Amino acid sequence: MIVVAITGASGVIYGIRLLEVLKELKIKNSLVISDAAKTVIKSETDWEIEDIIKLADSYYEFDDLTASINSGSFKFDSLVIVPCSMKTLSSIANGYGDNTITRVADVSLKQRRPTVIVPRETPLRTAHIRNMLTLSQEGAIILPAMPGFYSEHDSVDDQINFIVGKILDSLNIENNLFKRWE
């Protein structure tokens, strides 16, 4: 089971598309959406929050520190935070588990489970880079939302699929979401 967390950074469509693909591939997932992400979803997409939640097998509230995914004894295979705001990144890097997303990230890292973080910010401050380095040193995969143009994108959807395909690649999940280098 993959835990998917969507935070309040621009690029929420990456998280939504990941949920669609996981559903298509019949891979169980759990979902957490931050309060800020709900605001961004409304401004960047035509999606209704309820419809996004329906893509997941289970859903946890952002402020539920008693959620089962916040326990190291709860079994999940990996965590993807997509997109990951710099606030969330900083909280995780500094061990500040004050909500469901930062707490499940703490659990994922301390249990050495694959943790993919997709930061969505530009330009980056030195503090952002340090926080990414800290998480990388702890085993997280830092996967910035930077499409590769060698796959001949024809549309924004192609660029979204490229990033989602790279996320799946990081988790060793077979996919054909983008044209691979030949």
Automatic annotation (TrEMBL):
InterPro entries: Flavin_trans-like, Flavoprotein, UbiX-like. Keywords: Flavoprotein, FMN, Prenyltransferase, Transferase. It catalyses: dimethylallyl phosphate + FMNH2 = prenylated FMNH2 + phosphate. It comes from Methanobrevibacter millerae. FMN binds at residues 8-10, 34, 85-88, 120. One of its GO terms (molecular function) is carboxy-lyase activity. This is Flavin prenyltransferase UbiX. Flavin prenyltransferase that catalyzes the synthesis of the prenylated FMN cofactor (prenyl-FMN) for 4-hydroxy-3-polyprenylbenzoic acid decarboxylase UbiD. The prenyltransferase is metal-independent and links a dimethylallyl moiety from dimethylallyl monophosphate (DMAP) to the flavin N5 and C6 atoms of FMN. The keyword Transferase applies.
